[in-house]
From TrEMBL:
A Pfam family that the UniProt record links to this protein: DUF1244
Source organism superkingdom: Bacteria
Organism: Pseudomonas knackmussii (strain DSM 6978 / CCUG 54928 / LMG 23759 / B13)
UniProt protein name: SMc04008-like domain-containing protein
UniProt domain SMc04008-like: residue ranges: 37-102
């Protein structure tokens, strides 16, 4: 078996950024495809949701001086205006989901 030509530690900053961006795009597309997965489920299991991603996206834009509204950032993550996504796909949290969220918030 031959050894790979490059080690992950040999990556240039540009290559690392390209890989991170590709992984991010794949994550966003996955979440767009999985509209059945509610944000509260993501929060309860992973501690972040689509809204968190949109806030991080906006913060990154702010860091480089790029004008981007919170709504534009949400639309980038959701693939449609947030109000539209919410009306079409967001369900009311069950008492169990809300209790799990409230418990997780305390930690």
């Amino acid at each position: 078996m031959s050894k790979p030509e490059h080690s992950i530690t040999d990556l240039s900053q540009e290559q690392r950024t390209e890989l991170e961006a590709a992984a991010f795009r794949t994550l966003v597309q996955h979440l767009r495809n999985r509209k059945d997965v509610q944000n509260i489920d993501l929060m309860n299991l992973a501690g972040f949701c689509r809204n968190c991603l949109s806030k991080w996206y906006k913060a990154a834009a702010d860091d480089i001086g790029l004008e981007l509204s919170a709504e534009q950032a949400r639309e980038e993550i959701y693939g449609m205006p947030y109000a539209e996504w919410k009306a079409k796909y967001q369900k009311e949290a069950s008492p169990e989901q809300q209790a799990a969220f409230d418990t997780a918030k305390k930690h």
